[in-house]
Amino acid sequence: MSKATVLIIDDEVQIRRLLTITLQNDFNVVEAANAKEGLAMVANHPPDLVLLDLGLPDENGHDVLKHLREWYTHPVIILSVQSSEEDIVRALDAGANDYLVKPFRTGELLARIRSALRMVSVEENNAVMEFDGLSVDFAARRVTKQGVPIKLTATEYSLLALMVRNEGKVLTHRHLLLEVWGPSYTNESQYLRVFVAQLRKKIEEDPNRPRHILTESGVGYRFVGGE
User: What angle do CA 105, 110, 114 make, to 5 degrees?
Assistant: First the structure.
């Protein structure tokens, strides 16, 4: 099986070198030192995943992400020293699959990359997803836990299905509200808190210590399937 190709767009030589050393055993790694070079490489030879720095010398990384999302459909993970909730939410709402703040742990980066690439395959091929006894059958709109059906409302199912299809990815409050409730509800975060609490009671072993639906403080939620 051929290795996936990862494109690093970062102006810092040391960061590119570290990332290449970290990734080269598992992936084909290519590099770009600025936005112009990176966008050209994606256009000419689309990689399977892009690691994008926001602090590029020739163009703001948020704008680069916007350009990419006009046509590039594969995962984009942001690697940035910018750690404010505003920057993180802005990038995720603009289509980033994930966001890691520098300095980051290489093991976590590898896990995030594998998760993002895995979801590409899942979205294309899988009708059923299973995690530690939790099963979601998208075709039948059926959820079971240890083989026992879980009764969900239509809204609960829509919210869970959206999270599961994006397993490993942080989904912002705004994105979840927009997708499940519609544009009139993007500021109604209380809806989200209530339904997330209800889902946790139904699918988690301990709703107070959730293993699957994790809170990303001030940003949104991430569904984690487990090993």
Answer: 150
φ, ψ for residue 213, nearest 5 deg: -95, 100
As assigned by CATH, the class of the 126-223 domain is: mainly alpha
Q: 70: pLDDT confidence band, cut at 50, 70 and 90?
A: confident
Residue ranges of the domains in the chain?
Answer: 5-121, 126-223
Q: How many CB atoms lie within 10 A of CB 122?
A: 16
Over residues 175-222, the pLDDT tens digits come to 999 888 888 888 888 889 999 999 999 999 999 999 999 999 989 999
**pTM, rounded to two decimals:** 0.70
CB burial of residue 35 (10 Å; 0-12, 13-18, 19+): buried
Cα 135 to chain centroid distance, Å, stands at 20
Q: State the Cα–Cα distance between residues 7 and 116, nearest whole angstrom.
A: 14
Query: Could you say which of 3.40.50.2300, 3.40.50.720, 3.30.70.2570, 3.40.50.410 is the CATH number of the domain covering 5-121?
Result: 3.40.50.2300
pLDDT digit string, tens, across residues 2-51: 799 999 999 999 999 999 999 999 999 999 999 999 999 999 999 999 99
